[in-house]
């Protein structure tokens, strides 16, 4: 007989709560009666601001007078905001980006040139491609830390874009070279006028040359697309190309690292490598970390306060996408600093509860979560305002068709995993996939090429009840059936569960999302979609025109749950599914929520928390037949009915109910051979 491998998982919990309604509380004082019980011990929760939208062909320089990096313009592909930009951003010493609102700005553009003129203490912008007519320009603008001013020099270069431009500290002038429309001209800016130079030797004209001022050698360094390195001494260009050189490229980022006294070159079309120049030779560095593959049209500058190179944004040709991430270079390695995707790590809190003062999620940022070992819901408590301008996501994972055998699409925090697609028949002698996890887990495809079913969020008793007590995420979709030689489609993970509670106001212009994971066709069958999860909001007031979403994968159904409890509700945004509103309910202590845990199976103790792996099961026994399963409870009254859900490739079955006695319940059941899962659920009524 085959080995019978059985793995118990951390249990879900079902609770239906009967709560007596309360009367209307009239607001008089701005601080209304709701108390989130947050101690504030975890301080303010903030995420790093980013430049929005993502872009390429922008410019970044260090403004020495104001001691901050300045970013201007660039090209964005964002719908409704695409094309050249004319926004101004600064990066302070703490590493936070801040959008400025100057009284005047240059017209929207990209592929312009920019340098900091230290002698005049102003940032200079020249030319680029104007958004208004998609034509190159030759206007000159300067930034004084407060506003932009257009200059009207008597002489100036012709229209151009994608040139090289840096400040020559030794000569106290800005140097401009080449660019599209600029052939091989060299111009200098003295703060009043542009003057063309006529060097005896010069590089070939090129689009997107990399240029930096090498302060240690007091010369401008240019790296050319044909792999040549040139140096400018204020009078002539000299070809100083060494024997070892970076591969040829255009639109690379280059800057001078004053701490290490070397020029740093990164990326360019088809590259994401790092090279340094010491005045005589190029050396390739091999950092452990670096920005994504093939980064071009980026921006980079040195920050003296941080003693690091700062690299931002650019274009990733392979996926045709612009980015808005920020990286730091310390001379040895690149370190990711901020970007559109930022992760909140739950692993240090077994109960999933945080006590913040305030919470702020910036625009353009999507916060996702690294789950804790117990897979609890997210519980953010605050005693001051909560502002959500970006996205908070507890979505379940997408279910790609190429997951390794035994690896599932994970549910969000507090939710359940999708099922595995069936293993191809010529390996397993079966077409059947596995069921999605959770009490509403989707059934598997049991026959050849049969699709798996979607996960549900309202399958049993109080699971998914309107009170969201307890807070629990969605169930996973079932795995699809295989064919003779192809695996079935995997099921999506269930949408997670999140509580955000504040003693003051929750203001949302962004999005809170608890969607189920979508599915993908494997070539023979579909897996099921993950169910929508749960979003619970508690506050004095809930305002704003943002959005809440808790829907099944691929927006297939509206089976998630959203509940807002507040004394004042002026929220004017959108929701899917519809919101259940009420006043804040009394006696809602997040730390006392009940839990069920499978602790013993077939005479073997289960290590906690169980891994849930079907490749390396938590419990292994060697024959099918009758077994006992012990479930223990916390904060659930004795006398509560508990049920088991058992899933194997032979189908889904249930056991119970059994009553909790002395904090535990014991089940006797018959199981087949093969790997499977056990989950425990309860349905009880508790007073407020």
Walkthrough of the structure:
The protein is an all-beta fold. It folds into three domains: 4-12 and 594-686, Immunoglobulin-like; 40-48 and 341-434 and 443-585, no CATH class; 59-338, Kelch-type beta propeller (Neuraminidase, 6 Propeller), CATH 2.120.10.80. Helix content is 1%, strand content 40%. Strands 3, 30, 31, 33, 34, 36, 37, 39, 41 and 43 form a ten-stranded parallel β-sheet that branches. Strands 1, 2, 46, 48, 49 and 51 form a six-stranded mixed β-sheet that branches. Strands 29-32-35-38-40-42 form a six-stranded parallel β-sheet, with no helix packed on it. Strand 4 and strand 5 (68-76) form a beta hairpin.
Tell me the major beta sheet: 10 strands, parallel
In terms of structural class, how would the helical and strand content be classed?
Answer: mainly beta
Total domain units: 3
Low-confidence stretches: 1-29
Q: Helical element count?
A: 1
Rough shape? elongated
CATH level 4 superfamily of the largest domain: Kelch-type beta propeller
Taking all Cα atoms into account, the compactness measure Rg is 30 Å
Percent helix among the residues?
under 10%
Rounded to the nearest angstrom, the distance between the terminal CA atoms is: 52 Å
Number of strands: 51
How much of the sequence lies in strands comes to 35-45%
Q: What oligomeric state do these chains adopt?
A: single chain
CATH class of the largest domain: Mainly Beta
CATH architecture of the largest domain: 6 Propeller
CATH topology of the largest domain: Neuraminidase
